[in-house]
Backbone:
């Protein structure tokens, strides 16, 4: 049995005051949460403030990105050590908005970041998924296989247990075009099978695979009921406490 894991990716939204307000609302409503793992990913500018607010709560802090180097002359970047210093437990790696950003983030860079995050004790959430064009061309599995094998290169079966995979079809992110539970489950099952080939099935049974892409309170229930969907990575609907809490509550039904 895998406990659901739900993340709220605030992206480039929220000023200090707005972030504090949202974090307080979450903490006040989720103080008794035990069944699910919940993390939020505020922008770097408010990590410290949010960290103070959620310190003794079940809500954990996640960064939206980090650099692969320990430290150095990397203007504008942030290191794993800095994230730990501010109270982060998790870090998102390879979000599609970064894979297609400037500079573009490739699987090889994501793999370097993953190794650094693991070596420092951060829990990585590795994001991957196909574009609409790739799906239309029938290349979804090929794309996922490449992303998995390259980004997880040289990660052993102890460390893979610390990793969460977030399957986020690019065509579903921020579009309102959620994958159907069946479409998502097909890819989640494919990912779990791939991981079984790379590791072993006993280990892989414990790895959690989140779905992400236009999750809303009313579609989470059907998604979480799928065998291989272990939670959600939520963008837009995590910017409002009420909808994010409804999504977390929807995930609890998979435990009933
Ligand atoms: P969305 O974003 O829920 O707004 O589609 C998901 C994500 O980018 O992680």
Residues:
């Amino acid at each position: 049995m895998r406990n659901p894991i739900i993340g709220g990716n605030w992206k480039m939204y929220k000023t200090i005051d707005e972030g504090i307000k949202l974090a307080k609302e979450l903490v006040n409503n989720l103080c008794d949460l035990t069944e699910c793992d919940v993390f939020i990913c505020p922008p770097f500018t408010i990590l410290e403030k949010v960290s103070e607010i959620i310190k003794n709560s079940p809500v954990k802090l996640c960064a939206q990105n980090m650099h692969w180097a320990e430290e150095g002359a990397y203007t504008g970047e942030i290191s794993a050590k800095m994230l730990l210093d501010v109270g982060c437990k998790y870090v998102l790696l390879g979000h599609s908005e970064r894979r297609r950003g400037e500079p573009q983030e490739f699987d090889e860079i994501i793999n370097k970041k993953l190794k650094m995050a693991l070596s420092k004790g951060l829990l990585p959430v590795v994001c991957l998924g196909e574009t609409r064009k790739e799906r239309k061309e029938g290349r979804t599995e090929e794309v996922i296989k490449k992303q998995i094998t390259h980004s997880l290169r040289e990660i052993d079966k102890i460390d893979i247990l610390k990793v969460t995979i977030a399957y986020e079809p690019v065509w579903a992110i921020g579009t309102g075009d959620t994958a159907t539970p069946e479409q998502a489950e097909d890819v989640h099952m494919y990912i779990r099978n791939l991981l079984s080939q790379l590791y072993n099935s006993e280990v892989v049974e414990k790895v959690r695979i989140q779905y992400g892409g236009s999750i809303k309170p009313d579609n989470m229930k059907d998604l979480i009921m799928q065998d291989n969907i272990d939670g959600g990575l939520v963008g837009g609907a995590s910017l409002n406490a009420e909808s994010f809490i409804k999504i977390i509550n929807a995930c609890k039904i998979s435990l009933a």
User: Anything to note?
Assistant: The chain has one domain: 5-255. The beta strands are 5-9, 37-41, 59-63, 90-93, 123-128, 164-167, 208-212, 231-234.
